[in-house]
């Protein structure tokens, strides 16, 4: 996987509200990684360590170098936390504030989502 092609920036054009209860979240990968499955793991900020939802997100845009994944979420409580899980062949990766890792400790998630 081309880690240099991975990009997500909170509070930017990669994560923004479109109204009071809806958010758009985008994620970028290098074009050669278009076969990677991307999942958004998200939950309410204060119980994210124990309760999460999972949603597969799909390619919505592409250019010469990158593919862009996008999902629209409807949230009753907009105080939420999220990370991404990436599946390539039989390997799992996580993308959070720690960057790309092969595991993620949800018990410490309050510190680095």
Automatic annotation (TrEMBL):
<protein>
    <submittedName>
        <fullName>Alpha amylase N-terminal ig-like domain-containing protein</fullName>
    </submittedName>
</protein>
<dbReference type="GO" id="GO:0005975">
    <property type="term" value="P:carbohydrate metabolic process"/>
</dbReference>
<dbReference type="InterPro" id="IPR014756">
    <property type="entry name" value="Ig_E-set"/>
</dbReference>
<dbReference type="Pfam" id="PF02903">
    <property type="entry name" value="Alpha-amylase_N"/>
</dbReference>
<dbReference type="GO" id="GO:0004553">
    <property type="term" value="F:hydrolase activity, hydrolyzing O-glycosyl compounds"/>
</dbReference>
<dbReference type="InterPro" id="IPR004185">
    <property type="entry name" value="Glyco_hydro_13_lg-like_dom"/>
</dbReference>
<dbReference type="InterPro" id="IPR013783">
    <property type="entry name" value="Ig-like_fold"/>
</dbReference>
<feature type="domain" description="Glycoside hydrolase family 13 N-terminal Ig-like">
    <location>
        <begin position="1"/>
        <end position="103"/>
    </location>
</feature>
């Amino acid at each position: 996987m081309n880690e240099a092609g991975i990009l997500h920036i909170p509070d930017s054009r990669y994560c923004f509200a479109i109204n009071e209860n809806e958010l758009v979240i985008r994620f970028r990968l290098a074009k050669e990684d278009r076969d990677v499955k991307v999942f958004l793991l998200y939950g309410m900020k204060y119980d994210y360590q124990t309760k999460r939802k999972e949603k597969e997100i799909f390619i919505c845009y592409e250019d010469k170098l990158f593919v862009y994944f996008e999902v629209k979420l409807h949230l009753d409580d907009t105080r939420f936390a999220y990370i991404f899980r990436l599946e390539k062949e039989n390997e799992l990766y996580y993308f959070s504030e720690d960057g790309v890792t092969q595991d993620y400790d949800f018990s410490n998630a309050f510190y680095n989502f």
